[in-house]
Amino acid sequence: MRAILGRKIEMTRIFDKQGQEIPVTLIEVKENVVTGIKTANKEGFSAIQLAAGEKKRLNKPEKGQFDRMKIKPAKVFEVKSEQKYQIGDRLKPDIFHEGEKINISGVSKGKGFAGTVKRHHFHLGPKTHGSNNYRQPGSIGSAFPQRVIKGRRMAGHLGAKNVTTKNLEVVKIIPEKSLIFLRGAVPGPRHTWVKLWSPNEA
């Protein structure tokens, strides 16, 4: 698997040679540093640990790991990989290529406590003849078994979950600006961390 961490910048549009509009999301992908390696002999699979970004200060466990590399990463994650890397290697946006389709994972926008109409797209009730039932959830079960069935669609917390969008096309890569243009929308608000990954090694 090839993967790298980036930050969602914004959504905009570009035009191709035929003048067709392409909706794209800009992802800033600066260098990711390899900070750890797991071998298949010990864990059953090969993996690498990648670190990206920079924060002001590290806690003690982080200092023990990253001080010797002289980095202060804001985000760290592990990814399975069969490719041979060394501690300190740096991954750049060129691990992907234009025209390739990749997956992207991030935390969706949190929308707080939401009702059934917004959260599950329930229909509205009748608004005439004194109904007084515009957005109410309605029945939540029969008399038996005298409890709410697991998985019943009700009002509750909406958003702020890990979401993966698959098969987004890499429209353009600008290495000198560390930017990747992806066709379509990417989960999460602006300036949040996202993981770009492809299950293929090459």
Question: Into which percent range does the helicity of residues fall?
Answer: under 10%
Name of the CATH superfamily of the largest domain:
Translation factors
What would CATH call the architecture of the largest domain? Beta Barrel
Mean pLDDT: 92
SSE string, helices as H and strands as E = EEEHEHEEEEHEEEE
The CATH topology of the largest domain is given as Elongation Factor Tu (Ef-tu), domain 3
Order of strands side by side in the largest beta sheet? 1-2-11-10-7-12
The tally of helices reads 3
The CATH class of the largest domain turns out to be Mainly Beta
| Beta-strand percent range | 35-45%
**Count of structural domains:** 2
* Number of DSSP E strands: 12
* Rg for CA atoms: 23 Å
> What composes the largest sheet?
6 strands, antiparallel, barrel
Structural class: mainly beta
Secondary structure blueprint with pairings:
Blueprint: E1 2-15, E2 21-28, E3 32-38, H1 40-43, E4 47-52, H2 60-66, E5 75-80, E6 90-91, E7 101-107, E8 113-114, H3 116-120, E9 156-157, E10 162-174, E11 179-183, E12 193-198
What are the main properties of this structure?
3 helices, 12 strands, mainly beta, six-stranded antiparallel beta barrel, four-stranded antiparallel sheet, 202 residues, Elongation Factor Tu (Ef-tu), domain 3, single chain
Can you put this structure into words, describing what you see?
Helix content is 8%, strand content 39%. The protein has 202 residues and is mainly β. The chain folds into two domains: 2-111 and 156-198, Translation factors (Elongation Factor Tu (Ef-tu), domain 3); 112-155, no CATH class. The strands form three sheets. It has a six-stranded antiparallel barrel. It is extended, with a radius of gyration of 23 Å. It starts with a strand and ends with a strand. The mean pLDDT is 92.
